[in-house]
């Protein structure tokens, strides 16, 4: 080897050692090089205990992608405890913690994050109608800093009413419990009312915002005596699911609800997307964003898994006979 060749080799080696890696090979947006782990902000709507069945799959999804808490990422969690008035403060806390991406579920929380920042990426989970509520302009091309998963819940409410008619053919008046504080729930109530008109079912519309409002709705139900209860998809009812389902059982009010958690708490039936599966899938979006992908380039996904859950113990207690055609469609029977 000549002196000139040896010198050229030294120069090339120095370039390889000292130059930063190319953008495509840069792990987790370069946080490791800065000696700082990436930070994921998780904004829960209720409490860790009430959302353990959702937070667990999200964490499992992260681990499957190599994102392990305290080793390769930090997860900053904040919990609303069912109180949407806390949204501005808790979103502010996550932004002050300098998180690299925020993950949250539902329309109110997603809107709160959108109002607070246009720069920190947001992965939304189970937002019923992100286009109709103005969160994004398009599912395929969300633009801006928001992506994630939709639960298409406004399309599901009519289907739940149809399923209720299959189970209770004689029902003529159905109480509908919905969150009047949520823009999505306004749309969902309208969709449910339209579906009820087609089925020639009357609706007792009960918009609530707090536990006190729920108690007031119970009073109206006792007075009007509907034949069934439909609880629409909102985190407020996850927070108070045991209380609401206990009332439904006492009043012998069958219903097809949005969340399986209500059925585990004593409700009759639920039909809808698997929220646990959507939380697991949210980890994919987080991983892509931390590796440098822009949320605007990640199309919003629809649910991939749907569940029909029936509580047979509750059916017996209410004196409801589930038709065989419905039983055959069930993904899970709770005995």
Give, in spatial order, the strands making up the sheet with the most strands: 2-1-3-4-5
The share of residues in extended strands comes to 15-25%
Structural category: alpha/beta
Could you report the average pLDDT, rounded to the nearest whole number? Answer: 89
CATH class of the largest domain: Alpha Beta
Amount of helix: 40-55%
* Principal-axis shape: elongated
Task: Count every beta strand, where a strand is a DSSP E run of 2 or more residues.
Answer: 12
Largest sheet data = 5 strands, parallel
Gyration radius, in Å: 24 Å
State the CATH superfamily name of the largest domain. Response regulator
Which regions have little confidence, pLDDT < 50, spanning 5+ residues? 1-33
Count of helix runs: 13
Q: In the CATH hierarchy, what is the architecture of the largest domain at level 2?
A: 3-Layer(aba) Sandwich
* Overall structural domain count: 2
- Please provide the ordered H/E string of secondary-structure elements: HEHEHEHEEHEHEHEHHEHEHEHHE
* End-to-end CA span: 80 Å
> Which fold name is given in CATH as the topology of the largest domain?
Rossmann fold
């Amino acid at each position: 080897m000549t002196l000139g060749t040896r010198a050229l080799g030294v120069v090339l080696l120095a370039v390889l050692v000292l130059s930063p890696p190319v953008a495509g090979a840069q792990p987790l947006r370069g946080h490791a090089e800065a000696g700082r782990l990436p930070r994921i902000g998780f904004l829960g709507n209720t409490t860790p205990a009430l959302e353990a069945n959702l937070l667990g799959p999200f964490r499992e999804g992260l681990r499957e992608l190599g994102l392990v808490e305290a080793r390769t990422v930090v997860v900053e969690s904040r919990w609303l405890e069912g109180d949407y008035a806390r949204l501005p403060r808790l979103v502010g806390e996550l932004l002050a913690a300098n998180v690299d991406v925020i993950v949250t579920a539902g329309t109110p929380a997603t809107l709160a994050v959108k109002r607070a920042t246009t720069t920190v990426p947001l992965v939304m989970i189970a937002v019923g109608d992100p286009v109709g509520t103005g969160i994004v302009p398009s599912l395929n091309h969300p633009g801006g800093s928001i992506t994630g998963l939709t639960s298409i819940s406004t399309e599901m409410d009519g289907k739940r009413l149809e399923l209720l008619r299959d189970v209770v053919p004689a029902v003529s008046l159905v109480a509908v419990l919905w969150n009047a504080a949520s823009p999505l729930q306004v749309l969902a109530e309208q969709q449910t009312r339209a579906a009820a008109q087609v089925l020639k079912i009357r609706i007792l519309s009960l918009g609530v915002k707090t536990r006190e409002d729920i108690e007031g709705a119970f009073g109206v139900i006792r007075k009007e005596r509907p034949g069934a209860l439909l609880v629409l998809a909102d985190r407020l009812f996850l927070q108070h699911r045991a209380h609401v389902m206990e009332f439904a059982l006492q009043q012998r009010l069958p219903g097809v609800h949005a969340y399986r958690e209500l059925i585990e708490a004593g409700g009759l039936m639920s039909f809808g997307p698997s929220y646990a599966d959507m939380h697991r899938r949210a980890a994919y979006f987080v991983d892509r964003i931390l590796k440098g992908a822009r949320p605007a380039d990640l199309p919003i996904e629809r649910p991939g898994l749907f569940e029909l859950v029936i509580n047979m113990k509750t059916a017996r207690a209410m004196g409801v006979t589930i038709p065989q055609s419905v039983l055959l469609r069930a993904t899970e029977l709770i005995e």
